[in-house]
Amino acid sequence: MLKKTLIPFFMLILIIAGCGGNGGAGDDTLVISGKKWTEQYILPHILAEYIKGNTDYDVQVKEALGEVDVLTKAMEGGDIDMYVEYSGTGYLAVLKKEYNPDQSPEEVYEATKKGYKEEKDIVWLPPLGFENNYAIAMTEETYNKIGVKTISEMAPKSNQLIFGAPPEFYERADGYDPFAKVYDFNFKSKESLDPNLMYKAVKDGEVDIITAFSTDGRIPRFNLKTLEDDKNFFPPYFAAPLIRQEALDKFPDVEKVMKELEGKISSEEMAQMNAKVDIDNEDPKQVAIDFLKEKGLID
After folding, report:
1. Residue 174's pLDDT is what?
2. Is residue 179 part of a domain?
3. What's the CA gap between 22 and 30, in Å, rounded?
4. What contacts 24+ positions apart, CB below 8 Å, involve 160-163?
5. What's the domain range around 190?
6. CATH number for the domain harbouring residue 187
């Protein structure tokens, strides 16, 4: 009778012991995550496969954890160690800085890097090589119908248009309210759309205009047209890996490895990878592996 009681008890102790640290990954595991949209499904696997291919570290990917607030809290709490963020997002949404259109992309990146280290002990590693900027996009039919090339030219006609954007855009410091104030918008109506569904919504005419992401492969595939941000409302968005200093101390080779990945992903290459997932229904992890192998970055 005693044996039957003790065996489950010891098994329970082993299970509990194996669940500690980094959300179940273990103290010797580098945990990488991302946001809930296509590019951010691919990028964690690019980081993970590249680090695994060039170090002896154990790496785990926790896919689609959440948007910037969720990921920042997860980093600060030690639940994840690393993810890819965009300089303009970090600068405005996390550090709460005010963007000056006269600032260069490099200045925004360096200020963001400095702020994260001082305030959060999080390290911004070298940029990956592309920017993912907001792009005001519409179908070619709508583009020809309203006959404009810049956002300023579109503003007086905004009362004829239905605007669509992800829910987060309506709450961001670089989002709808300040955007509408700068350009004096008055849209016919506004819709909250899943970022992975908004391209189909504009393509199918459910909305007239969306806040697209410049590296999304559906922009060229759907032949969408974009307008010039002629007042430079949006800041630059360099894509770069972030890592907790505590994790970097534990996995020091990550800094050297990420330095070698600096500038290796162009905007065109990122858009092509996104299109493979969104339109060709390829697996994000396999797309990441194929890219790294084609570039000779892993065997």
Report:
1. 82
2. yes
3. 8
4. 160/188, 160/208, 161/187, 161/188, 161/208, 161/209, 162/187, 162/188, 162/189, 162/190, 162/191, 162/206, 162/207, 162/208, 162/209, 163/187, 163/188, 163/189, 163/190, 163/191, 163/207, 163/208, 163/209, 163/210
5. 134-227
6. 3.40.190.120
Confidence of residue 31 (pLDDT cuts 50, 70, 90): very high
Q: Is the pLDDT of residue 8 over 80?
A: no
Instruction: Establish if 5 belongs to a structural domain.
Output: no
- Residue 212 sits at φ, ψ, to 5 deg, of -80, 170
**139 and 212 inside one domain:** yes
Q: What is the pLDDT of residues 238-257, one digit of tens each?
A: 999 999 999 999 999 999 99
| Distance of alpha carbon 118 from the chain centroid | 22
Q: How many CB atoms are located within 10 Å of the residue 121 CB?
A: 13
